User: What shape does this take?
Amino acid sequence: MPGENLSRDEARERAALLSVDGYDVSLDLRSAVGDQTGDGPRTFRSVTTIRFRCNEPGASSFADLIAPSVTAVSLNGRDLDPGEVFDGSRIALEDLAADNELIVDAQCAYSRTGEGMHRFVDPEDGEVYLYTQYEPADSRRVFANFEQPDLKAPFRFEVRAPQGWTVWSNGVGDLADGVWRFAETKPISTYITCVVAGPYHYVTDSYSRDLGDGTTLEIPLGALCRKGLAPYFDSDDVFLVTKQGLDFFHEHFDYPYPFGKYDQAFVPEYNLGAMENPGLVTFREEFIFRGKVTRASYEGRANVILHEMAHMWFGDLVTMVWWDDLWLKESFADFMGTFANVGATRFKDAWITFANRRKAWAYRADQLPSTHPITADIRDLQDAKLNFDGITYAKGASVLKQLVAYVGQDAFLEGARRYFKRHAYGNTRLGDLLSVLEETSGRDMGAWARSWLQTAGVNSLTPQVLLSAEGRVDELAVVQEAAESHPELRPHRVAVGLYRRTPEGALERYARAEADVDGPRTVVAELAGAEAPELVLVNDDDLTYCKTRFDAGSLETLKAGLGDLTDPLARALCWSALWNMTRDALLPAREFMDIVLRFAGRESDIGVLQMLHAWAESAVVHYAAPDWRDEGAGLLAEGAERELLAAEPGSEQQLAWARFFARTAEDPGGFELLQGLLDGTSAIDGLDVDQELRWAFLQPLTAWGVADEKALAAELARDDTASGKRHQVRCLASRPSEAVKAQAWAQVVESDTLSNALAEATISGFNQPSQRNLLAPYTEKYFAVIERVWQDRSIQIAMNIVSGLFPSLRDSRATLDAADAWLAAHEDAAPALRRLVLEGRDDLARALRGQACDAGTVNHE
Assistant: This one.
């Protein structure tokens, strides 16, 4: 893996030397089917012709290619010896001319890791499905190229595929004489080219829009998935959101969609949520729902569709020069996904989900030792791979939300319009965007960027309330604090809301003021004289990015009556604040649990409810004192069963509580209910136990030793599909046995035979909170193997192993010491590997602090 890296300095030097005129890529994928002959990986032929210029004739450079073998290399008509110029990841190019043509004929490998050309065999019918995934730098696993975002070029693809297959790429394709030939693309970066091939189920639609200049924009729409998922594919809803999004972005961007058609492929064993390949967006097929799901799942899918669509402009049309400015596409797409969801679709409360779910991701990432400014220092491709994180996505989107409030929505969108027109098909840096926003808003963007984009860490905002003798607000101030490691105090535009009970007992806002918080203490003069509040909510309406804290009176109000808050966004913000306090060891886990158990059943927003379930589970597993953990788990299971039985029959709340009950069940009574729901001897009015719910019920029964391998085999026979196989593998690895754990460890760590999806499922099953003792031997083994894993495996699989198998469930000082010892002894290890270990170590240290708080041995007053 280290030999496959590319540094920023190397990319900068190459971009200064070369410019690319175009690619012709010919792939022969007929080898994807049939029996494999010979040893080694299954391969396909890839022939690439690159036309490029060099502004220093006689200079040397290199092209990128990761392939088992290269058959021939030709540079400007000269045949080069592949053994001399190809080292496994690079092709040396010597004595370049002013105008050059490079032809590379290679045997490239099909992937089982979700990187490059991924090959999937459907266990249901034996059909083979292919797709590509490249970001940040895996197109070199499929064709020779200059793998960096600022060397854009037009691409022409042609593909030979097995008979009966359909092939898709970024442009429109036609089949003639057994070859699929695709229209030349606009100038795009290598990492957003794409090929999808196989016997996919494909449906079509179309979009049209009057552009107001006498012309009509026509966009062919397509959506595809495996044949086995076709019965569940609600393509009508996918097309509905797609059309709503295209309308929304055309209205706000004033730049017609530039890439012709718009296909969306839902593909198996996908590592990401989705990828913004122009004209052919790829998604993980789990967005096709095989069973009943809540509204939150549909909202989440719509958000991803719109996120990827925003990339057609932010990222594809205008692309960052290097991965330092990854935020120029991901932060904007993350913001625009929610912005469009609220503005164009039926999901009008999407900002609540953003405040509760997306920001939780950002808050966690921003407190890790690996936190970084939104505009990050990306030294190489390994750095880039790890920076697709909560900072780049969710914090960046949160900051953009504040920027819109700072400069005004009209100025922000006008800046975007100028940015697209000025830099279409080009590459940009931070300053290019800031300059247009200065033009449109009249504000100095430099100070804003320094505070929000070029510093790391999250601030905490706490209200201070002084009351007069008459019981009114004499002074209300907001205190801003920062971590010692990242002491920046930023300017915040916040709303401060005052809440009190109505005669009917509801908690409602009766006063609100906006203020510019700057420095350690800011007085909100507008609220002086208001009646005394029972709850003060700093950052009401979620205008800024911060951790909200409470004064003592407000905290007691929430403990006694959080469920009485009538505004769903205010509730979501309070829940998020309480969870952050739990993670920061300011609120004992058992107190957070108590609030959840008393008020989660009254939560109307299904996305918030499902987030509360995840947080409550995490509170027991990681932050509860060990001597109270079993009691807390029992209380959680009892509460989940109680709410399940009380939920409205057939409601999505009932479904959410059913899934949560399955995850928390831990005693014979709970197991008996789950088993009865599976075999039909028990029933809950309105609860449809579909196939996905059956697997959810089997998981805890397996982990606790109630269901055995025979039961799992029977369930797989009932659901002999790719999804069923993943569920079965997860359950098999979750069985409470030393032999099972040893086998799962060997399958993931010592072998590379599992696909990315099955390795992920095995890791998930291996880590069971109820099996801490069984996992004890693997702490030492983990630290002994991770450097070898990092060297030998692809970066995606290595990341999954290093993060997924970190011994977080062995939550003791000894484990922390083991992590520290490894870090001290491996100062020269790959920075990306050290980052993952540091993150696991930090999560563990945070859990131990939380446990001490819950045990009452730490005083944070």
About this structure: The chain has a mean pLDDT of 96.
